[in-house]
Amino acid sequence: MTAFFDLPVRRIPADGIDIAARIDGSGPPLLLLHGHPQTHAIWHRVWPELTRHRTCVAADLRGYGDSDKPAATADHSAHSKRQMAADMIAVMRALGHERFEVLAHDRGARVAHRLGLDHAGAVSRMMLLDIAPTLDMYEGTTRAFAQAYFHWFWLIQPAPGPETMIGHDPVFYLRSVMGGRPGGLAHFSAQAMAEYERAARQPGWATGLCEDYRASATLDLDHDSASRAAGERLRMPVRALWGERGAVGKNFDVLGLWRAVADEVSGGSLPGAHYLAEETPDALLEEAGAFFGWR
Question: Which is the catalytic residue, given 68, 106, 130, 220?
Answer without folding.
Answer: 106
